[in-house]
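Intended use. Records like the one below are meant for learning the mapping from a protein sequence to its folded structure. Do not use them to infer anything beyond what is encoded.
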Amino acid sequence: MIMGEIEEFVRTVRRTLHRHPELSGQETRSSAYLQGILAERGWAIASIPHTTSFLAYKEGELPYTVGFRAELDALPIQELVGECTREYVSECTGVMHACGHDMHAALAVGLALERDAAAGKGFPNLLLVFESSEEVLPGGAQAILASEAFAAYRPDLMLAVHCDPDLEVGTFGIRGGQYMASGDELWITVHGKAAHGGLPHTGVDTLLVAAHILVALQSVVSRNVPSSESVVLSFGHVACQGRMNLIPAEVRLEGTLRTQSETWRRAAKERIAAIVEHTAAAFGAEAHLEIREGYPPLCNDRALAEGAKQLLEEMGGTVQELGLRMTTDDFAYFAQRFPSLFLRLGVGLTGNLHSGAFVPDEAALSHGLRALRRLVCCLWRE
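Structure written out for the chain above:
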């Protein structure tokens, strides 16, 4: 294939994945489709047990191995159909590739085709890591890292890209060192005693207790964490079985804790636990706190980040220095084990990630493909 044919094929792969999105852990069609494309071209395929994740590997001319991670899963979001997406809109009601994972997987295929077009010359050994379930805990990275297949191919460095609707097409976002946050899920259940709304003194008002817990928890960041640290504590869901004249016996709160520091991650959890327990007790209620540990903070290798910046600018790309970001990605597990770089790919000023209006400019695919080839072939030597 010549370059134009590769780019057209990559666009077709992206649109096929976009039309048939699959939720986390259910990516059987996507996985089989991508495996078929690569197996047909002689790539060694290794499935990750009990998941839809898989690896694709081929040796190159250069004596080292570069891994590239691409996610498979979509989101439970209804796509908003516009003129530019009508011909390849999601065919699955309420499910959409609203985070660009279809773009990332298509780029991985494009990288494989570029390597094959060059017959491996100028390329290192290439390990494509197609990951299931990145969007939900516990993610897919840990199962991949624990697999015998991954151990057999052990990369010298890992790369990942992510679509960014805040960057213009042709712009890449990079930050060396600490970049993305850890993310833990908080589940609080307040137990009290149901009562008639007109007779609140006969019960233990769980809604009142929950409200005091929510307010008190705001002090975790504002009164415990230095302003120089990046910590976010947010709650987005409150649920109960009450009515306008019925105080419920139980209220559930769901939230998230994001930090850039493992030290403050631990400290915040301890403070949250104390506030939840003692606030509930002060009102004669009980509260149960469950913390579901999520992804660790993501730290980019500084040398790789600086080398990538130079390489991308040499090929005419615009590179923007990124700030700290309080979102998460389980690519952080790869970054804990190997020199790694997670960079942002500008896809035009479109709708936000995780929204039905997210429509990345497909012109970003050609920019991403050129950048990946350059990084895969040259970054490790830099």
